[in-house]
C-alpha cells in the first residue's frame, strides 16, 4: 500500500536539465525517459523497452534524430512512445508502445502527471512564476534524499527547526519562539502557515544578501499545495517598516523560497529547491552566496531526514509521535496527503 | 518457489580451476566444496560442517592429505563426506556425513548433479567435445552475473542483440535483419535456432581472427540443451563458398562458442564461456585476441543483464513483456525450463 | 518473534566509555542515550525525541548542563527523561517524556534493564568483582559482531574451538581432546562447564604472560549466567601443583576472562571482553601483551561468527545441526535462553 498520491502532477526536472540527449528520472516509482526534441518540446515516456525491459536511457541505447533506439535489440520509438521498428520483421505489433506521460514545462520546471492520463488537468498545476520572471533572480538545485517525501513535508511545514538545525545560517531564537498561525483552504487544496517576527535577529543568510544591519522584521508565509509545490514567501525589512496602503513595500526585501517535493520511490525523494529574490538582481556575488548557503541548509535537512528514515526502518510497529502547536500545518498537510493517496488507491482498485 | 530446475546436471567449474586445495562454489543455492585428491579425482561435498555450519572452505579449515579438517572445532571428513574425527570423543555419530554430489569431469568442465542423487544419469550430460580435442584450440573464462540465469538464456537464444549491444565486436546490421528458424526437439530436450546470412559484413571478431577480407557467408546455429549447456556453431566463409557433398567445407572457418549457464542463486549466475576454433591452432596472437574480445562481449552482456535484474526488482507485479519473432527460441527454452522446474518441485514435495 | 530475552539486565557499556557527553548504544534493538551527569551518575533514556524521532545523540543535538536539547526542534529533556521545554509554547504535554532505563554501574560495567522496569531487581545482576578490584589488573575491550548473540554463546560455551580457531594463541591439542563436565543450576540460572587438563602444552597466551616454561596444569571453569554474563575462571600452574587444603594455591596463576554478550539487534551483538589477572599486576608489558593477544582471539571469533550469520541467512529452512558431547553446555544455555525469551514474549503479550 503506497503513501504516494497518484493522479497528481509532480516536478520531474528543471527544464534546463533536459537537452537533446536521453535523460532518466524515476518519479513515484516510475522510471521516465526525457529528451528535448529538435523542435524544443520535452518528451516523457516510460524508460523501459516493451520487449525485454532494457532501460532506453542506458547505453548503448541512443537518440537518433527524434527517435530512441533500444541498446539491447534495436526496438525504436518515436516521441509519442509508438514503436516504429522491430528487428527481424517488418510488422510492428499494435501494443508496441511506451507509456507516454502528460507533461507541462512551466515556471522553469518540467511537470509530469503520474496516474490516469485522462485526469491530467494542467490548469491544476500550481504556479511559481518568480522562478522564471524578469523581476527576480533565481538560484536553484536538487538534492537526492534517501527518505520518504512526507518527512520533507513535515520538515518544511514546521520552520521552528531553523533555530536548531540551521542555527548559524537561517535560524535565530525568534523563529522557534514565535507562534504560528495556520489556515487550510480545503477547496483550493492549500495549507498556509505564517510566522511574523516584528523584531528579530537577522540571520547571516539575509544579512549578507540584503546588507541589512541590526534587527529586522521577518515574515515567513508558507503556501503549500500538496503533494508537490511548497512556497515560502519571505519578507525581510528594517524593524518598524510597513507595507503601504497601496500594497507597495519599498523598504522590504522579498525572497521566494520554492521547494518541489517529488517522491522518487516510497523511501526516497527528489528535493528540488530554488531561491528567487527581488533585489541585487545582477549581483553575482549575492547569487553565489545564496546558492551556496541554501544548498548547505538543504544538505543539513537531507542529513537529518536520512537519519529519520533509518530510525523509522528499525522502530517497533505502532510507534507514536507526539505533536504540539508548531505541527498544526504539518498535520493538516498529512491529512490532505492521506486523502489524496486514498483517492488514488480507490481509483486504482476499481479501474 | 524456485525457478531453478533441480535433478539436473550443472557445470560447477573448469577442471583446471580445481587443484589439491579447497575450492568453493555455490551452485543452485548450494555451497559446494571441491578439491582434487592426490589420485587426481575431483571431490564434491557440501561446504558446511554438519556440527555448527562452519564453511569447510573457510580458513583455518584445511586439507590434510585427502581429508578436510573444519577450522572451527576440528570435525574431519574424507573424500566421500563421511566424518572420521570428532573432538572430545572417539565415537563418530552415524549421521555425521557431508552431502556428496555426483560428479563428472568431461569436456574441460566439472559437472555436478543438483537434486536427488538417485536420478543422476551421467549419460544425460550434454557434450562439447571440441573444448578438449586435438583439432581445436580453446580460450575460456567465467564471469559472475548478478542476474537470474533465465536472463542469460534469453540473451543467448536471441542473437539479434549482437547488432546493438555488441556493435563493434560481433554484431553487424545483418544479424538483426536476418530472420531465424527455430526447431524444438522435445524428446531430446534441445532448442535449435538458426540464422544463415549468405552475404554479410564481417565483424572485427572474425575478420581479425580468420584474416578474411570483404563480405562473408555467416551461419549461426544454436543448440541449447536446457538448463545448462549452450552451443553456438558458428561458420564463417567467403561469400559463395559451399559445403561439399562429402561434408567437407575447406574454405570455411568454424568456431564453437560454448556457454555453461549455471545458477549460483535465484538472482545470480555463473557465466562460463569458451571459444573453440579449428584454425590458427597454434597462433597465440589469435588466442589472445579471441579471449580478450569475447570477454569484452561477455562483460557487455553482464552489464546489461545486471541492469535488467535491477529493473525487475523494482517493477510492479504482473508486468508484461512483448515478444516478437526473434524470441521464438527463447520462449521455447523458457517453456522447457519451466517444465523442468515444475517437475523438480513436484518431486521435492512428495519425496 | 524475537529470540532475545526481555526483562533482563544487559551490559550496555563500560563505565569508562561514558563521560559528560552524549553517548548512544543500541541494546536489544532499543537505541539508548547515555551521559554522565555533573554529579557522576550515568543516565539512560531512549535516544529518540518524542516529537519527530530525531536521535538525541545526533548532532546538532547537544548536552546543556544536565539536559539534552534535540537538534531538530529544540525539545529539551532532563536526566529522568522528562521534557522541560517545547518550542513555540510554554505548556509541556504530560506525555512528553523519554523512556528511562533502570541502570546500575558495577564491576566496571554499566548494566541496563531491558523490559518492564517494574521487574528490574538489581540484586539479580551477576557479579564480576575482579574487573574492579585491587588484587587484579584488567585489560578490556568491545568488538562489534555482525551475528546473533546465540552464536557467541555457542562459541564461548564450547572451548574445544580454541584448538582450531585460536591455534597459535590460546589453543593446544589438549583442549579439544579433553572431555568436559557440565552442570546446570536451574534455580540460580547458571551453566557450568569444566575442563581440567593435568598435563598440557602451555599456549603462548599463558607462557608469555606467566613466564611458565614446560607443560602445565590448565583448568577452564566456565560459569555462564544467561543471557549476558560469561566468566571463564582460568587456572594455570606447573604440572603437579595442588590447591592446599586451606584453599590457597600459591604456585598457580589465575586469569578471569569475562565476556558480556549483549544483543544489539536480532542479528548483531556487542562482544565485551575483559581479562583480569592476579599476577604481574604492575607489569605494563604483560598488560599490553594480554590486551593485544586477547583482542586478536576475539577478532578470530568475530570473523568466524560473522561468516556463520551469513551462512544461516542463506540456508534452507529447517536445516539441522549435529550436536555431540562438547555441546552439552551450549545446548543447556540455549534451553535456558529459549525459556527466558518465551517468558518475555508471554509477558509482552498480556501486559
From TrEMBL, chains A, B, C:
SUPFAM superfamilies: Bet v1-like, ISP domain. Its EC number is 1.14.13.82. Gene3D superfamilies: Naphthalene 1,2-dioxygenase Alpha Subunit, Chain A, domain 1, Rieske [2Fe-2S] iron-sulphur domain. The keyword Transmembrane does not apply. InterPro entries: Cholesterol_7-desaturase (IPR050584), Rieske_2Fe-2S (IPR017941), Rieske_2Fe-2S_sf (IPR036922), VanA_C_cat (IPR044043). GO terms for molecular function: vanillate monooxygenase activity. It holds the Pfam family Rieske. Keywords: 2Fe-2S, Iron, Iron-sulfur, Metal-binding, Monooxygenase, Oxidoreductase. Residues 9-112 form the Rieske domain. This is Vanillate O-demethylase monooxygenase subunit. The lineage of its organism: Bacteria, Bacillati, Actinomycetota, Actinomycetes, Pseudonocardiales.
Amino acid at each position: 500500500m503506497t503513501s504516494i498520491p497518484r493522479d497528481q502532477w509532480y516536478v520531474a526536472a528543471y527544464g534546463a536539465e533536459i537537452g537533446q540527449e536521453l535523460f532518466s528520472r524515476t518519479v513515484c516509482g516510475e522510471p521516465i525517459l526525457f529528451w528535448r526534441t529538435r523542435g524544443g518540446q520535452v518528451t516523457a515516456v516510460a524508460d523501459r523497452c516493451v520487449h525485454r525491459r532494457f532501460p532506453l536511457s542506458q547505453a548503448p541505447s541512443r537518440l537518433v534524430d527524434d527517435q530512441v533506439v533500444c541498446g539491447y535489440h534495436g526496438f525504436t520509438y518515436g516521441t509519442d512512445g509508438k514503436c516504429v521498428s522491430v528487428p527481424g520483421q517488418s510488422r510492428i505489433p499494435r501494443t508496441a508502445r511506451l507509456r507516454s506521460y502528460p507533461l507541462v514545462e512551466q515556471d522553469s520546471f518540467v511537470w509530469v502527471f503520474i496516474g490516469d492520463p485522462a485526469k491530467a488537468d494542467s490548469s491544476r498545476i500550481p504556479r511559481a512564476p518568480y522562478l522564471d520572471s524578469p523581476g527576480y533572480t533565481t538560484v536553484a538545485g536538487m538534492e537526492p534524499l534517501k527518505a520518504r517525501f512526507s518527512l520533507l513535508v513535515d520538515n518544511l511545514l514546521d520552520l521552528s527547526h531553523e533555530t536548531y538545525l540551521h542555527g548559524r545560517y537561517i535560524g535565530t531564537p525568534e523563529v522557534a519562539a514565535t507562534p504560528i498561525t495556520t489556515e487550510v483552504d480545503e477547496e483550493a487544496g492549500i495549507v498556509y502557515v505564517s510566522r511574523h517576527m516584528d523584531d528579530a535577529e537577522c540571520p547571516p543568510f539575509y544579512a549578507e544578501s540584503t546588507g541589512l544591519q541590526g534587527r529586522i522584521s521577518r515574515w515567513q508565509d508558507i503556501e503549500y499545495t500538496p503533494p508537490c509545490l511548497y512556497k515560502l514567501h519571505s519578507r525581510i525589512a528594517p524593524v518598524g517598516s510597513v507595507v503601504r496602503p497601496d500594497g507597495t513595500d519599498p523598504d522590504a526585501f522579498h525572497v521566494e523560497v520554492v521547494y518541489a517535493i517529488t517522491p522518487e520511490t516510497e523511501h526516497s525523494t527528489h528535493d528540488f529547491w530554488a531561491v528567487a529574490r527581488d533585489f541585487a538582481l545582477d549581483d553575482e556575488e549575492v547569487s553565489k552566496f545564496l546558492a551556496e548557503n541554501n544548498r548547505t541548509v538543504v544538505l543539513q535537512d537531507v542529513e537529518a531526514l536520512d537519519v529519520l528514515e533509518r530510525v523509522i526502518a528499525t522502530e517497533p510497529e505502532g510507534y507514536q509521535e507526539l505533536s504540539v502547536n508548531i505541527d498544526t500545518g504539518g498535520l493538516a498537510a498529512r491529512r490532505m496527503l492521506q486523502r489524496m493517496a486514498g483517492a488514488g488507491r480507490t481509483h486504482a482498485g476499481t479501474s
